[in-house]
Amino acid sequence: MSDDLNYDDELIAFLGELWGDGYLSPGGPEEVARVLEGIDLAGKTVLDIGCGSGGITVDLVRRHGAGRVIGIDVEADVCVASRKRVEAAGLGDRIEIRQVEPGPFPLDDASLDIVFSKDSIIHVPDKEWLAREAFRVLRPGGWFVASDWLISHDGEPSPEMAHYLETEDMGFVMASPKRYRKALEAAGFTDVTLLNRNLWYRDQARAELARLTGPGRAAFIEIVGDDEALESHVNSWKTMLPLVDSGEHCPHHFRGRKP
After folding, report:
1. Domain membership flag for residue 3
2. Mean pLDDT over all residues of the chain?
3. Do the domain assignments include residue 1?
4. In terms of C-beta density within 10 A (0-12 exposed, 13-18 middle, 19 or more buried), how is residue 232 classed?
């Protein structure tokens, strides 16, 4: 995973206000349930890649019945927040949060039932390595189940997309659906499927912008400090929306099974 991130306490609070307490990506518990649709987590051992501040990690146990979850992240602030959330939920016996360095997962071969990630592997530059690493740590019959922010095509991004990535300045590395499918299949996964969530996110992104600019704006200003700071976030959404509308920015769910 990339270490060029900046999920500090302020950003954690800002995204939690926008997307739900403990959530650092859109859609809340409902979107997590869609990512996991048809996948039985009951009693399973799960790796949560990019666990963030722990909202999803806790829900993998509380809502989806995972037996044990190992959450990993490269960011110190989010790991601290995640551990506090796990402790408050009384789930310390079933959830372990590990701060890791970018690189191989600190896990044994064939030691997990599910590898899961929700919109965090956009920070992993090498998607082929990621697929191989997920395959390595899964037991036979296990699933790699994830969502990510994708770009619709291979090759250079449009000037508008390049500007958006520069504006975000969060170490985003977007891959195409074609590249993800090839990476998963080359790693050895079968039953590979991808689901484009672009149309869903078009509505979501507009609703998010409406909250940032509408009557709820005061709550976000209280978090970030002033109007100018909030406007930097608003401008990011305004830069992103045309890319979502064009389809170049296309969030996807994907999954593959280890035979």
Report:
1. no
2. 95
3. no
4. exposed
Let me know if residue 2 belongs to a domain. Answer: no
Q: Which one-letter DSSP state was computed for residue 153?
A: S
Task: Give residue 227's domain range.
Answer: 9-257
How many domains is the chain built from?
1
| Cα angle for residues 128, 125, 48 (degrees, 5° grid) | 80
216 Cβ partners below 8 Å, 6+ apart? none
Q: Which pair of tokens denotes residue 151? A: 């770009």
Phi, then psi, of 180 in degrees rounded to 5: -65, -45
Q: Tell me the whole-structure pTM to 2 decimals.
A: 0.94
Written as one string, the DSSP assignment of 37-65 is TT---BT-EEEEET-TTSHHHHHHHHTT-
**DSSP 8-class letter at 239:** H
Phi, psi at 107, each rounded to 5°: -140, 150
Residue 4 included in any domain: no
Distances 116 to 32, 36, 48, 112, 119 between C-alpha atoms, Å? 10, 9, 5, 11, 10
Domain CATH number, residue 139: 3.40.50.150
The whole-number average pLDDT for the span 140-155 is 98
Give the pair of three-digit tokens for residue 182.
């090839």
Structure tokens at 11: 């950003």
Are 1 and 127 in contact, with CB atoms under 8 Å apart?
no
Residue 33 to residue 30: CA distance in whole angstroms: 5
Give pLDDT tens digits for 41-77: 999 999 999 999 999 999 999 999 999 999 999 999 9
Pairing of strands 45-49, 138-151: unpaired
